[in-house]
Specification:
Blueprint lengths: L1 E3 L6 E8 L5 H19 L4 H14 L7 E8 L2 E8 L9 H9 L2 E7 L6 H12 L4 E6 L8 H10 L4 E4 L1 E4 L7 E4 L4 E4 L11 E3 L3 H20 L2 H8 L6 H17 L5 E6 L8 H11 L9 E4 L7 E4 L8 E10 L3 E10 L2 E2 L3 E4 L4 E4 L3 E4 L4 E7 L4 E5 L9 E3 L21
Parallel strand pairs: 1-21, 2-4, 2-5, 5-6, 6-12, 7-12
Antiparallel strand pairs: 3-4, 8-9, 9-10, 10-11, 13-14, 15-16, 15-23, 16-22, 17-21, 18-19, 18-23, 20-21, 20-22
Bound molecules: guanosine-5'-diphosphate.
């Protein structure tokens, strides 16, 4: 059984947020499909089984049924673990939405390329602002009649008050949408007209018809990044073109820093059509490249059990005392009651005793599972920054903290901030 000590730099805890019908389910389903295909490659012994499963799922579609689903994506041949946290579909200011946002480190916001920014896109955006969640955007449904990428980008500025970083330009429109120009590498990514699920794009030179627009938007990208990043500004003022790596790094810094700050959110914007299988692989690259890892959250603050005024900070390290937040309880048809937890510090070990610091009661951790789209994996223990499902918790409800018995802490304050009043 695996004792996972993940390299935290290679973990992403993300949510996918959208106005209803924008394509959140389809995008998530494609992410699970593509990551399932890629993971299979690394697991030769499991290959046949994974393939069978893929074929079955291809017919009925993979849907997230778990509060957190773990998948893997290689970027430049380095494996990354992505935990997708299900954010509730209805977007009231419920405590459940608050809790799922609380355990995320980053998010993908999906927009409908025809409708653009819709009322619920605004609501989820404000919620993510409030929780300081860095975001990337995916303008979906570019195959639809009336879809307009740039109109949606303008709405991100006007309606959301954000600073979009246009990372791609669409090639072709509506039924002729073929691919995108990557404005960092300055290459075109082109899919077959009828791209099948799992089909990879071809990387080719930018078509001559798009060369001028690509140069113009590449220039705008450099300028906007420089306006928001000192290191890039230095290069920019010296008239030096950054390397692709430097640009990736700068975009990552800007996305994370602005996402967490109370100022304007700078957000990289990608595009495609999840349904027609174009654009999801570059989006996965972007999740890994630009969204934060648990290490980018320097420390989580909680408070002393007896004295709510006394702040206790815990770093995302296995060496710190255990602190974990229960954020969702589900009933699994095979396993029974499962409590989903995010471990912020220390290690959570199967069979160990921990303290529910809110109730002041001891709890025993039963089995620990990592939930994948097609299977659950039992693990012995899990470290800081990770998200798993735990069996055996009898008294813990959502929002409560599990801590080291000798070093108790309460992570979630019981008073929620007042809801943001939406101004029409
Ligand atoms: P959700 O409510 O945000 O989860 O949206 P869904 O993923 O369920 O999608 C809503 C509808 O839009 C479904 O009928 C999808 O098949 C369709 N859809 C999703 N993505 C695309 C796309 O890229 N292009 C087109 N034409 N339709 C899409």
């Amino acid at each position: 059984m695996a004792t996972t000590s993940l390299d935290l730099a290679r973990v992403r805890n993300i949510g996918i947020m959208a106005h209803i019908d924008a394509g959140k389910t389809t995008t998530t389903e494609r992410i699970l499909f593509y990551t399932g295909v890629s993971y299979k490659i690394g697991e030769v012994h499991d290959g046949a089984a994974a393939m069978d499963w893929m074929e079955q799922e291809q017919e009925r579609g993979i849907t997230i049924t778990s509060a957190a689903t773990t998948c893997h994506w290689p970027l430049e041949e380095v494996d990354h673990t992505i935990n997708i946290i299900d954010t509730p579909g209805h977007v009231d200011f419920t405590i459940e939405v608050e809790r799922s946002l609380r355990v995320l480190d980053g998010a993908v916001t999906v927009f409908d390329g025809v409708a653009g920014v819709e009322p619920q896109s605004e609501t989820v955006w404000r919620q993510a602002d409030r929780y300081g969640v860095p975001r990337i955007c995916f303008v979906n449904k570019l195959d639809r009649t009336g879809a307009e990428f740039h109109r949606c980008v303008d709405m991100i500025t006007d309606r959301l008050g954000a600073t979009p970083l246009v990372m791609q330009l669409p090639i072709g429109a509506e039924a002729d949408f073929k691919g995108v120009i990557d404005l960092v590498t300055m290459k075109a990514l082109v899919w077959p007209v009828e791209a099948a699920k799992g089909e990879m794009y071809d990387t080719v030179d930018i078509p001559a018809t798009h060369a001028e627009a690509a140069e113009e938007w590449h220039g705008k990208l450099l300028e906007t990044v420089a306006e928001n990043d000192d290191q890039m500004m230095e290069l920019y003022l010296e008239g030096k073109e950054p390397s692709v790596e430097q640009l990736y790094e700068a975009i990552r810094r800007v996305t994370i820093a602005s996402g967490k700050s109370s100022g304007t959110t700078v957000t990289p914007v990608f595009c495609g059509t999840a349904f027609k299988n174009k654009g999801v692989q570059p989006l996965l690259d972007a999740v890994v490249r630009y969204l934060p890892s648990p290490l980018d959250v320097e420390a989580i603050e909680g408070h002393d059990v007896k004295d709510p005024e006394q702040v206790i900070a815990r770093r995302p390290s296995d060496e710190e005392p255990l602190s974990a937040l229960a954020f969702k309880i589900m009933s699994d048809p095979h396993l029974g009651k499962l409590t989903f937890v995010r471990v912020y510090s220390g290690r959570l070990v199967a069979g160990s005793a921990v303290l529910n610091s809110v109730k002041g009661r001891k709890e025993r951790i039963g089995k620990i599972y990592r939930m994948h789209a097609n299977k659950r994996e039992e693990i012995e223990s899990v470290g800081a920054g990770d998200i798993v499902a735990v069996m055996g918790l009898k008294q813990t409800t959502t929002g409560e903290t599990l801590s080291d018995e000798k070093n108790p802490v309460i992570l979630e304050s019981m008073d929620f901030p007042a809801p943001v009043i939406e101004v029409a």
